User: Fold this.
Amino acid sequence: MKILTCPINGPRNISEFVWGGEVKAMPDPATSTDDAWTAYLFLEANVAGEIDEWWLHAPTNTWFIARRNTVTDTVIETMTVDAYFARRAGSEA
Amino acid sequence: MPFALLKYALAKEHPNDPHFRWTPELKPSYDVVIIGAGGHGLAIAYYLAARHGITNVAVLDKGWLAGGNTARNTTIIRANYLTPDGVRFYKESVDLWRGLSTELDINMMYSERGHFTLAHTDAALRTARWRAEVNKHLGVDSEVIGPDEIKRLCPTMNVSDDVRYPILGALYHPPGAIARHDAVAWGYAREAMKRGVEVHTQTPVSKVIVENGRAIGVETSKGPIYAGKIVQAVAGASSEVARMAGFLLPIRTIPLQACVSEPVKPILDQIIVSGSLHVYISQSARGEMVMGSATDPYGLYSTRSTLDFKEGLMAHMLELFPFMGELRVLRQWAGMADMTPDFSPVMGLTPVENYYIDAGWGTWGFKATPVCGLRMAECVATGRQPELLQPFALDRFRTFDLVGEKGAASVGH
Assistant:
């Protein structure tokens, strides 16, 4: 049985989690073009390699971010949403 | 060991492969290059040669002939879909399947078994009635039947209400069939090669050469080749190959697992599917119970098999077929399914000129091999989206014209 580590609840059985797909930047709904919006809704990078993705720990309704390799199925790290976006803001600054 | 066989093995010269006419060297250019030598790619090549006289064609594959999802599916063929667009498309495929052994001169072992989609809830029964009406309207044989009729047609199945999810009824589709998957690929490959098509395996494509929005060739492990038109038919690798051509797809690559039991004497004639229990089963010609379940809970580029899959599958399977408790699992495997949001394929033109796509086949690709090959060949030959493929264009996601087939997918939800 595969174990995934929730940043809040610790290591839990993978069957307790729901996959939320890759992290995508949402365009501003007020200014986005129709094409940019449908691209955000439907198109996926679907990379064979390391990706950042959303996961939900269903029993506690906790969304968090995992960095996972989609070829080897190894989880590199998991972190809270706040930690993920704080780090991303830091690297963009 | 017979002496003749030993002599043959020790001989220096051997006759050519009687089945396939392999060509060792790549030419510098072709009229059409097809990436992916699975059932779909080979079918496109065959119909290009047989119906459109386009024979200067190369089919390239990273691995070997039909070693991807053509070899990994559970070979179920049916036309009982939900949307009129889907039903029309898959009906043409079933019509082609019925004549395919003759057309390709190879025994596909096409076997019409009758296909049952079990309903365990009122909602599932409502979808079954909806599908039956759409099917009948378009000339596809489907009807909703109750537990007594299910028991009469399939005495092996446990239809008692002494289970966790009693069976309320089923969508019965008599033309539902299975076929021998390898024969499909071999038949298309052999007949295409007879007409001059070249198939090059162990030839991965690393780059699609695009100039001014037009695809003009590909870089391969054996050097660059130029092409008038390029088609990609690569199932689970669709997103990675489309990225080489410069565009993204509405696809997530998710494993779909399957397994077979040890072979037993014929005991199950029918194809049984339950969307609510996430299982499907049929018995192959050599007696193995071929079983599958829903796609994996998360995306992955891998063909590994998991214990979770088998535990979930067997728990439900034993309710439907208690005798299965006596059987052992013989083989297990997985294929990488290219899942679209609306459970329908993506076929035809792309944002790149002269570049065509055959993707998004998720868990429903094998049954469409003939019709997809025929219509994609027409699309490539004419440069226009055929009417039958119009609803399945890549552009439908931009205009929100989705073809929602989730309700007719076996178990992919």
